Amino acid sequence: MDIALTDREADVMHVLWDRGPSVVSEVRDKLSDPLAYTTVLTILRTLEAKGYVRHIEEGRGHRYSAAVKQQAARTSALKHLTNKLFKGSTELLFAHLVSDRNLTPEDIRRIRALLRDKPVKENKR
Questions:
Q1: For the chain, which residues make up each domain, given as ranges?
Q2: Which fold has domain 7-66?
């Protein structure tokens, strides 16, 4: 499943991933930007229409929860970014990330450990 989120939608999803099921006012209170209640409600309804959020009725309102896992959204976003900006090459993406950052020796040690522990898959061409 491809998961495409606008910046505002991603902000709302982060609240749901971090907090768990929430009513509109709870989501609104956790956002860094002050948005109108109706704006947050519209975003939640849009996310629900896309299948990324679901709700249960609670009194006169709804309690919304994430219907997609955060890791799935990250994977989808990274795949999209890699395909669009790096011609599908994870090597180009990785090279850009490493060269564009001031990595500490600890960062480099952790990256090396991740690479060392990653099983090698042979390309079938």
A1: 7-66, 87-119
A2: Arc Repressor Mutant, subunit A (1.10.10)
Q: At which residue do the structure tokens 């955060």 appear? A: 70
Whether pTM > 0.85 for this model: the answer is no
Q: Is 94 within 8 Å of 25 (Cβ atoms)?
A: no
Asked if 21 and 65 touch (Cβ cutoff 8 Å), the reply is: yes
Instruction: Give the three-state DSSP class for 57.
Output: strand
Phi/psi zone of residue 108: left (φ > 0), alpha (ψ -120 to 50 degrees), beta?
alpha
In sign, the C-alpha dihedral spanning 33, 38, 44, 47 is: negative
Beta bridge partners of 58: 61
In whole angstroms, give the CA distance from residue 59 to residue 36: 21
Q: Over its length of 125 residues, how does the chain's per-residue pLDDT go in tens digits?
A: 789 999 999 999 999 999 999 999 999 999 999 999 999 999 999 999 999 999 999 999 999 999 999 999 999 999 999 999 999 999 999 899 888 778 899 999 999 999 888 887 776 65
The SS3 call for residue 47 is helix
